[in-house]
Predict the 3D structure of the following.
Amino acid sequence: MALCNLSDVKTMLNIPLTDTTSDDKLALYIKQVSSQIESYIGYKLKRAEYTEELQAVNCRQVINLNHFPIQSVASVTANGEAVTDYKILPKYARFGGLYRGDGWTGTLYTQGFTHDVISGAWEIAVTYTAGYYLPGDEGYTEGAEDSLPYDISAACCQMVCLRYMYDAQGATGLKAHTEGGISDTYGDSANEAGLTDSVKRALSKYVFYGVA
């Protein structure tokens, strides 16, 4: 899984594309940074098809799927019957929400003397496609809605370049770096550090905080 292209990283580092001596190291950095970006934002980014069973939640118009953004839905059933009146609305689909104007209903369970409502039965089944085409994937088109947003790819590329440069300069263990008014602080090892503050700011709008 790679959130940026090796060729873009080499171009940023002024390494000729014909020079392959650093390819293995750069490819490893791309994998490491890509994994850290996914951990930071809180979800997988690669496009894939999923099938999930969900609990019916009466009186709610949105059910939350586990992968996102939702790109398309192949089928939905509720209580064993096909559902076709759902909508993929961008403001919900971005973080896995599937909208239905009449609400998602089904069998609910109760507990206690006052019959407090708890989780419903697992009566909704959804087969859908979520995530993005990544750089290098067939179907990837820079700027397309179904392709990885460029700012995520650029953030990955930036972080890989930083790691490569610090490694080349023997800067393992660097604690802070200031340049042009931008300051970034790293962990105990420049090669094992987390994302920089500037990269986190670039990714902040993609962070998933969960649903209460």
In short: The first strand starts at residue 48 and ends at 54. The helical segments are 6-12, 23-41, 90-93, 150-168, 197-203.
